[in-house]
Amino acid sequence: MDYLEKIKESIKNTDSEMVIEFTKKALENNLEPEKIIYEALTPAMDYVGQEYEKGNLFLPEMLMSAETLKGAMEILKPLLVKTGVPKAGKVVMGTVEGDIHDIGKQIVCMMLEGAGFEVFDLGVDVPAQTFIEKIKQEKAEVVGMSAFLSTTALQFLEVIKKLKEANLTDKVKVMIGGAAASDRYAEMIGADGYGSNASAAVRLARELVERTR
Amino acid sequence: MKGEIPTIRPTVKLLSRDFIEKIIDEAMDVLEKTGVWVDYKPALELLSDSGERVEPTSNRIYINRDLVEKHLKTVPSEILFYDRSEKLCIELKGDSFYFEPGSAATKVWDEEKKVIRDPLTSDTIEHFIVADYLPYIDGLGGGVVPTDVPVEIRDRFRLFLSLKYSTKPTTNGGTFTMDGFQVEKNLLIAIRGSEKNLREKPLCALAACPSPPLKWSDLTCHDLMEGAKYGIPIILISMPLTGVTAPITLGGSLVQHTAESLSGVVISQLTREGAPLIWGGSPSAFDMHYGTTPMGAIETIMFDIAYCEIGKYLNIPTQAYIGMSDSKCIDVQTGLETASGTLLGALAGINIITGAGMMNFETTQSLEKLVIDNEICGMARRLVQGISCHGEVLAEDLFTDGLYDGKHFLLSPSTLKWFKKEYFYPGTVISREDDQAWIKKGATNSQQRAQAEVKKILSTHKPVPLDTDTENELNKIMLQDARKYGLDHLPVLA
User: How far is it, in rounded angstroms, from Cα B305 to Cα B14?
Assistant: First the structure.
C-alpha cells in the first residue's frame, strides 16, 4: 500500500483522521519523516494551492487542507528535531506598526505552516524593532510583512532599513503582502518579493529560503 | 420567535388587480365590437360554426365575450417540458422562471472581426453547443437562422440542428412556410417515438404570432391550430408596437395584446379543448426618435412584465422576449440592458425568459454575449431565492467560545456548511481577482474573457449524441424536405 499517496489524498479530501492514521502507518513501515514531508505533505499542499489559484477550490477548502496537514506535522515535528532534518524554513510574520489588519496575514501563516515552515507570528501593529529582534532571536530566513493601508506600508521601509543597519540582508529575505502591497511596490522599496495570495506567498517563501541557503 | 420563518420570494408588480380587470374587460369589448381579422379558412369556419358573427365580405370576425370566458377555462395552467432523454426539466407554472437564448436571430455578431454578419449553419451549430453547455440556460430558442440553406427550410433546419446538438428542450420560434409545421412535428415525433409520447412529454413549444393590430395570418393561425391538434404547446406572441401598430400608451397597447392573445386562446381551444398555450409576446416601446423597436427600453420591459401579470391572472403560463439589448456590439449597453430585463423578468416570475445572447433589436446573436448573459441568469436565480432564515441561531459564530479580537470565521463549521450554498459564484467572465492578479492574467475585459470561454466551450464541450437510429431518422426527414427545395445534401455538419 502506498501510504504517501494515501496521505496526499487525505489532505486533498481534508480528512484529518485519516491523515493521522496514514502518517502513523507510514512511520511504522519505516518511511522517513523527511520523505513523508517532501513526498506527501508538500506536494499535496502544492496541489491544493494550485487548484485554489486556478479557481477550482475555495479559500475555506484550501485552509481546511492546511489544517488537516497540521495533524501529520504534529506527529512528525518531534522526530525531525531528533533526526535534525532541515525544515522548510523559519519565517517571522506580522502586520506592520499602525495597521491592525489581521486576517490575510493569518491565512498566510496557516498556509506556511501547512507547507512545513516554522512560523513566528508577531500579530498586528508590530513595531519595526520587534521584527528585527525576533528575526535575530530565531535566526529566521524570511520576514513576511503585511499592510492594508498605503500609509502604514511605509513601515515596510523601516524594517528593511533596520535589516540593512544590522547587516542582515544576506541572511534574511523580505516578503510583503496585503492590499497596500504589489510587485511594483516590492521592487520600489527593495523587498525581495510580493505574495498576491496565500498560495503565492508559500511559493515565494520557498524561493527566498533557497536564496539564503 | 416560534416556528420556521418563511423566505420571501422577491417580486415586482406593475398592475393592480383593478387595472388588470379593466384591461381584460376592454380587450373583450374589442373582440366583440371591433373583432379580429382571420386569414385562415379553417379557423373562420370553426369560429362561425360556434355561432360567431363573420362579416360576409371580409375575414373579420367578432368574438363574443361568453365564448372567450368559456375557452379560458380549459387552458392548462401548467406545462411540463421534458428534455431529449425524457427527463422532466422545465415546469411552467406559478412564478417559476427559465432562461433561454433570444430566438431565431437573423444575424450574428462576430466578436473576432467586430462585425455583424449573416449566419451560416456552423454558426447555428455553435450557438446550440454553447447553449447546451451553459448551466443557467435552461432551454433553447430558435437559435440562429442559417443563410446557407434554402430560405423555405430555415425554420425546421434550426430545429433539426437543436435536436442534434443539445438535449435541452426548445421553443423553436415561428415557422416560415405552411409545410414547416408538418416537418417540425415529424422531427419531434422522431425523437419521442410516437405522437402520443410527444403529446405527453412536450419537448418543444412553437410560436404563433398574430400580426398587429388584431390579425391572424394564415400561416400563424394554421400553426396555432395544428399545435392544438398535436398537443404541441404554442406560444402566443402578440407584438404591438406602441404608437405604430398599437395604441400609444402602455395601457392601450396592453388592451390590444390581451385582445390578440384572447382570440388566440379561442381559436386554439375551439380546435381542441385543453390544448397547451403560453401567454407570450414580443411588444416593443417604439422609439419615436429613431423609428426603431428597442427591446432594451425600460418601457418594453415594463410592457412584458405587465402582460405576464395579465397571463398570470388568467392562470396561463407566460413567456417574454426580455433581457436583451439594442447595442450593435458587445459593450456596456449590452450588459446594462440585458441585466435590467433579466433581473426584472425573474422577479416578475415570467415562466420563460427569452433573451440571452440577443442584441440589436432582437436580430443578432452573439456567442460571447450568451456566455456573459449566462452569468446574469445565474445572478437572477440567486436573487429570487431571496434571503433565508437558516436555523434557530443565525449568527452562531458570534456565540462560540474563544471569540477574540481578530478571529476569522473562515474555518468555522457554519462557514464550511454555507459558503457554497448561500452564494452564487460566477464563472471566468466576471473579474473578482485583485488588480495584481488581473494584470498577471492579461488585464482582459469581459468581452475578451467571454471570447476565451467560448473557444474553450467549443473545443471541449461534446453534447450528448443522438442514438444512431434516431439520428438517421432525423437526417432522413430533413433531407427529404431539403430536396423539395433544391438542396441535394445537407451542409456538412460538425
Answer: 7
- Determine the distance in angstroms separating the CA of B455 from the nearest CA of chain A, rounded to an integer: 18
In chain B, how many H helices and how many E strands?
16, 17
In this complex, do B408 and A103 lie within 8 Å of one another by their Cβ atoms? yes
Q: Tens digits of per-residue pLDDT, B92-117? A: 999 999 999 999 999 999 999 999 99
Cβ–Cβ under 8 Å, residues B294 and B300:
yes
**Contact yes or no for B148/B121 (Cβ under 8 A):** yes
Residues 221-260, chain B: which have Cβ within 8 Å of A? none
Phi, psi of A153 (to 5 degrees): -60, -20
What does each C-alpha distance from B63 to B47, B255, B403, B425 come to in angstroms? 8, 15, 73, 52
Q: What is the Rg, in whole angstroms, of the alpha carbon atoms belonging to chain A?
A: 17
Rounded Cα distance, B186 and B477, in Å: 7
SS3 B109: strand
For the entire predicted model, the pTM comes to 0.91
Residue with cell string 506536494: A43
What's the start-to-end Cα distance of chain A, in Å? 36
| Interface check A51 vs B, CB under 8 A | no
The C-alpha atoms of residue B338 and residue A207 are separated, in whole angstroms, by 47
CA distance B436 to chain A (A): 7
Q: In the predicted model, is pLDDT for residue B407 greater than 80?
A: no
Residue in B with minimal Cα distance to A194: B436
Residues on chain A touching B411 (C-beta within 8 angstroms): 60, 63-64, 67
Q: Which of A196, A197, A199, A204 to mutate to test the interface with B (most CBs of B within 10 A)?
A: A196
Q: What residues of chain B lie within 8 A of the CB of A103, using their CB?
A: 406, 408, 410
Q: What is the mean pLDDT of residues B395-402?
A: 84
pLDDT tens string, chain A, 213 residues long: the values are: 699 999 999 999 999 999 999 999 999 999 988 889 889 998 999 999 999 988 899 999 999 999 899 899 889 888 877 766 567 899 999 999 998 888 889 899 989 988 889 999 999 999 999 999 999 999 999 999 999 888 888 899 999 999 999 999 999 999 999 988 999 999 999 999 999 888 899 999 999 999 988
Contact state of A60 with B411 under an 8 Å Cβ cutoff: yes
Q: What are the backbone dihedrals phi and psi of residue B292, each rounded to the nearest 5 degrees, phi first?
A: -120, 175
Name the pLDDT band for B55 (thresholds 50, 70, 90): confident
Question: If you search the block for the grid coordinates 471569540, which residue do you land on?
Answer: B403
Q: Residue B208 and residue B234: Cα distance in Å, rounded?
A: 7
**Grid cell locating B24:** 381584460
- HSE-CB at A97 with a 13 A cutoff on CA atoms is 11
User: Which is nearest to B224 in space by CA: B32, B39, B484?
Assistant: B39
The ipTM, to two decimals, is 0.81
Give the E-state strand segments of B142-291 in sequence order.
Answer: 170-173, 204-208, 215-216, 234-238, 277-281
| Residue from A157, A110, A161, A167 nearest A136 by CA | A167
Who among A58, A103, A183 is closest to B419 (CB)? A58
A106 with B436: Cβ contact below 8 A? no
Taking the C-alpha atoms of residue B363 and residue B354, their distance in angstroms, rounded to an integer, is 13
Beta strand B36-38 with B60-62 is: antiparallel
C-alpha cell at B104: 431565431
Q: Is A59 on the interface with B (CB under 8 A)?
A: yes
Q: pLDDT digit string (tens) for B415-436?
A: 999 999 999 999 999 999 888 8
Contact A60 B436 (CB under 8 A): no
SS percent in chain A: helix, strand, coil, step 5? 60, 10, 30
